[in-house]
Amino acid sequence: MKPVAIVGIILIVIGIIGFAYGGLGWTTQKKDAQLGPLEITHKESHGIAFPPIASGICLAGGVVLLIVGSRKS
Which sequence spans correspond to the domains of the chain? Predict the structure, then answer.
């Protein structure tokens, strides 16, 4: 399989994931203080927003690369 086709497949998967989830999000737990056995923590939410237009561009670009990569020379 040609590298162009592989990149096309990766872009298609990224586009589908972007449409399905709208981005990536995760939570981290931070320790604020520790006084003997007592521990004070808080949770922080982080995320990367992936707009629908970027998902569409990835999907369309992946399809184009897949078509170009599958052509025989």
Answer: 3-31+39-70
